[in-house]
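Before the break, one more example. Copy the sequence into your notebook; we will annotate it together after we see the structure.
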Amino acid sequence: MRVVIAGQGYAGLPLAVRAAEVGHQVIGYDVDERRIKRLAVGESYVEDVPAERLRPLLENGSYLPSAEPGDVADFDLAVITVPAPLRDGVPDLSCIEASARLLAQHLRAGATVVLESTTYPGTTEELLAPLLEEGSGLTAGRDFHLGYSPERIDPGNPDWRLENTPKLVSGIDPAALAAVDGFYRQLVERTVPVSSCKEAELAELLENAFRHVNIALVNELAMFAHDLGIDVWEAIDAASTKPFGFLRFDPGPGVGGHCLPVDPSYLPWRVERALGRSFRSVGLANDVNGQMPDYVVSRLGAALNDRRRPVKGSRVLLLGLAYKRNTGDARETPAARIAGLLTRMGAEVRAADPHVVVGVHAPEPVIPGQRAAEQDRNGDPFAAVRLVEATPEELAAADAVVLLADHDDFDYDVVTAHARYVLDCRRRLAGATVEVL
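Here is what the structure looks like once it is written out:
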């Protein structure tokens, strides 16, 4: 089939590459020309798609990255994997809407459109279907197939990848479900049919809210346990020995990516808008996880104060800018707020991350020693941060080191040997100079 994947980010690019690998003619469409230029020369900005996978598909013509709207014409199946961020607590579906309008111009009878973007229950049928029908003159269900299949990409996870993660599939009617299921069964080991799009949309939010709420629980425990003089990490270790009724979650400097800081909030918004009621557990999780970067800064300030050093004028080295270990994914990373707070307090903030990518819209490689603002003028949360390597000299020169993302690339023996003080937010280090979150 001729397949269009609208959006070439952390969900769309792996999907496009996998579809091309199984034999489809794939158009990877993205409005960001910088991304497309990099992909066109075989450069990948997503760890799950190494250049070695991408380049053969470019050479044999099965994958075409494009920013040209006309290239999406004549598609048999299209998948929308574009962002759906929050703007002042309200879902911003403008990218989904723009994708729908573009695809509608080229929608033909018998074609299939699938939404993968995480959003509120009802989006596929109440928003996407009318836009496709209005722009094409066709009717969903009668003339073309429409369905929803939530993305389950976990960037940097070596065990669970697109191919072996069960894929939820749904359609607005049995024929649509069959079409959606038939496509994804070629890409993944197992599909899981769901009776309607709304249940599939809710399932995606449930998965994310489950993690969000449980991370908030251990984050709040970490704050209280510290003040009570209790080792929360040892308590978590102890609880984790229970073989039933407990699932381990660890504290951290905050949540990041699209899934936790953004997606669960669709539920309170939808419930409030449709039912006039509040979804309290997700709201509480938002409050707890949202304040963790501030808590990290307060703990760091207290530690510097104990060492008779004010935050203003102190040199702070952040280790890890990505929101999770062993990836370059800095979407909604708590490191951005931590760096911003410290900068506004007058600290000289430096950061090291061997994986991080610069730029909100099109990731670009970090050049150590160069300010991010010099690399990406389109909006970088780390523009005021000097990017360096975690050398013994940098570690020794810092008044404080804060471990935010515990990448395996860091030499932790070097960190403990040279750093004067470390606030470890991931429980990766030990020693006389290390304080664990």
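Residues 359-378 have pLDDT under 50 and may be disordered. Residues 84 and 95 are 7 Å apart (CA to CA). Try to locate both features in your own notes.
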